[in-house]
Amino acid sequence: MATNVRRRRHGVAAPPGAVERVGMGGVMAGVDRATGQVKRAVREASPWLERLGRCGFAAKGVVYALIGVLAVQVALGVGKETTDAQGALGRIFTAPYGRMLLTAVAVGLAGFALWQFVQAVLDTERKGVDAKGLATRAAYAGNGVLHVGLALSALRLLRGAENGGGEAAAQGWSARLLERPGGALLLGLIGAGVLGFGGYQLYRAYRAKFRETLELGRMSADEARWVTRLGQLGYAAQGIVLGMVGIFLMVAAKTASPGEARGVGGVLAALAQRPSGPLLLGLVAAGLVASGLFMLVEARYRRMVIR
Fold first, then answer.
1. CA–CA separation, 282 vs 82, rounded Å?
2. Label partner for 284 (CA 20 to 30 A): which of 17, 48, 139, 244?
């Protein structure tokens, strides 16, 4: 701006766009300074962030394992119904010492969400800024939002509110989406995205790509082998369940029928109703238990570095 004023005093007009470039440069410099300050603050808090993240993996593991155990009970004919993460939180709350346990799980889920946001913003796993890297980091952020919702659900239970999860929630937001212009297309795209993510989980199970995120050098050869098998079973089960969730959402979009939408609990119930249902449900449920156990392993051996 000072340069522009001096040029005007001497009767020389500033080049077109010079003022805008100077202004934009100042804005970008301010953004860079703010980003640098955030990164420094996060690095200083990294020990606490790591602890919260590890608590988050443990809390998530408990929830997944409980979903799987309840589904195994249904498959064996000794359980009443399958459930999802929201239902698992409700089961924790009604257990002995449930309020204390659910408080710990809520804190863990919030810590996991925070770690996912750190991964997305600071790119802790060096995913980069190409299309694939940005998509992965966006998935971290989306996963963070999801677990913020789970943590808030736990807090609502602790405050005495009713659990708003289950199939009613999935069908409710599907119905609201279908009422909007273009809602069916958007719901179908969401379903396709969930289906695609389920396929990616199956790919991770097949290639055991998750091993890259673990500190396997701290394990014996036998421990690393068993952990790998747990991870593969867990990711395969997640892939199957998420793939079916995506398919049900796409069917709901195609038929404009929100009642066709299913969450995790509904997918597990649908498996039980198929031919050889108890066997299918038992296999997937065992995979979900394995997934929960693998997350408990991640709580200790996950490579968590904030650069």
1. 11
2. 139
DSSP string, 105-153: HHHHHHHHHHHHHHHHHH-TT---SSHHHHHHHHHHHHHHHHHHHHHHH
Q: Are residues 13 and 86 in the same domain?
A: no
Q: Whole-angstrom Cα distance, residue 199 to residue 193?
A: 10
Q: pTM (2 decimals)?
A: 0.81
Give 261's DSSP letter: -
Q: Write a three-state SS string for 57-87.
A: HHHHHHHHHHHHHHHHHHHCCCCCCCCCHHH
Residue 307 within any structural domain of the chain: no
Judge if 23 and 152 occupy the same domain: no
Question: Do 111 and 188 have their domain in common?
Answer: yes
State whether residue 214 is helix, strand or coil: strand
How many domains does the chain fold into?
Answer: 2
Do 258 and 277 belong to one domain?
yes
pLDDT tens, position by position, 148-177: 999 999 999 998 877 666 677 788 889 998
CA separation for the pair 293, 221 (Å, rounded): 18
Domain membership of residue 141 as a residue range? 45-301
Summarize pLDDT for 266-305 with one digit per residue, the tens.
Answer: 999 999 888 888 899 999 999 999 999 999 999 999 988 7
What is the pLDDT confidence band of residue 107, given thresholds at 50, 70 and 90? Answer: very high
Same domain for 87 and 27, yes or no, is no
d(CA 306, CA 78): 46
Say what the pLDDT of residue 6 is. Answer: 47
Is 41 exposed, middle or buried (CB count within 10 Å of its CB: 0-12, 13-18, 19+)? exposed
- Under DSSP, is residue 257 helix (H, G, I), strand (E, B) or coil? coil
